[in-house]
């Protein structure tokens, strides 16, 4: 309300005083508000200290309203709102949290590069929209998707580092051997999938997919499967075993169940 023009404020005054008239400039018409009407006016404004040409309104005018003060949104409130946006999944929770932290820090540094500044939810919504718009613009102009930076890989005799994840399980050696055997036979994407495998089951799956491309090379296929077999023996895994009831049901056997009362 403290950003409204003087003409708007004068029009509101005409609604509140003895005239009880609402003037619409676009229609050049006035509408009378009956005394028995249940018409209510709601207005909102930010603190004048936030700048943006906000001015102090006369106390006599402000007193025509019932003043309700609302606390500022916390970082958790803003983050919860941002996560509900359609483009939030593409940005990721970590980036959203960083965006909120940056805006809050800049808002607290009132003398940073010519401050003071006022950062609020509206600014963050624009930032999120700009983030999505820039990704779309990049894909349109360069003809390729805008992807995140590749994961940095490093390894030694004991551990394999995949970004921030450290893999020191029994399958590390198997991964290294498989990469050596397949490095000149398959595409780099298949090697990355082998390195990123989290357990022996996933390693077996991605390796078999890679072996499908080199099935003519019988020697490499046999060596890779031997490596997988050794890794499987040393890795803990779960095995599904059918119960007696399932076996009887599938194979059509009679099953005697004792001490079961089916009567009601």
Explain how this protein is built.
- The model has no long low-confidence stretch (mean pLDDT 77).
- It is built from 11 helices and 5 strands; from the N terminus they run αββαααααβββααααα.
- The longest helix has 22 residues, at 121-142.
- 47% of the residues lie in helices and 6% in strands.
- It is mainly alpha-helical and 264 residues long.
- The protein is elongated and about 95 Å long.
- Strand 4 (160-162) and strand 5 (165-167) form a beta hairpin.
- It starts with 5 loop residues before the first helix and ends in a 13-residue tail after the last helix.
- Helix 3 runs antiparallel to helix 5 and helix 7 (172-182) packs antiparallel against helix 10.
- It folds into 3 domains: 6-63, no CATH class; 75-165, no CATH class; 168-235.
- Strands 3-4-5 form a 3-stranded antiparallel β-sheet, with no helix packed on it. Strands 1-2 form a two-stranded antiparallel sheet.
- Keywords: ATP-binding, Nucleotide-binding.
- This is Midasin AAA lid domain-containing protein.
- One of its GO terms (molecular function) is ATP binding.
- Pfam families: AAA_lid_7.
- Residues 86-196 form the Midasin AAA lid domain.
């Amino acid at each position: 309300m403290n950003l409204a023009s003087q003409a708007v404020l004068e029009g509101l005054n005409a609604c509140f005083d003895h005239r009880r008239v609402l003037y619409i400039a676009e229609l050049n018409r006035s509408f009378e508000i009956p005394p028995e009407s249940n018409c209510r006016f709601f207005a909102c404004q930010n603190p004048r200290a936030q700048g943006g040409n906000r001015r102090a309104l006369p106390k006599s005018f402000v007193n025509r309203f019932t003043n309700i003060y609302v606390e500022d949104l916390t970082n958790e409130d803003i983050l919860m709102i941002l996560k509900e946006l359609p483009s939030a999944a593409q940005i990721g929770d970590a980036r959203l949290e960083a965006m909120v932290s940056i805006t809050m820090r800049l808002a607290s540094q009132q003398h940073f590069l010519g401050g003071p500044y006022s950062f609020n939810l509206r600014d963050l919504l624009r930032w999120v929209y700009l983030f999505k718009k820039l990704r779309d613009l990049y894909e349109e102009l360069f003809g390729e998707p805008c992807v995140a930076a590749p994961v940095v890989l490093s390894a030694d005799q004991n551990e394999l580092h995949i970004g921030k994840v450290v893999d020191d399980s029994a399958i590390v050696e198997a991964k290294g051997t498989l990469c050596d055997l397949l490095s000149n036979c398959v595409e780099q994407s298949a090697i990355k999938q082998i390195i990123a495998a989290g357990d022996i089951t996933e390693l077996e799956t991605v390796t078999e997919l890679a072996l499908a491309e080199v099935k003519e090379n019988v020697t490499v296929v046999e060596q890779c499967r031997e490596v997988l077999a050794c890794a499987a023996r040393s890795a803990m895994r779960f095995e599904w075993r059918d119960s007696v009831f399932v076996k009887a049901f599938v194979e059509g056997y009679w099953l005697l169940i004792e001490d079961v009362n089916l009567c009601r």
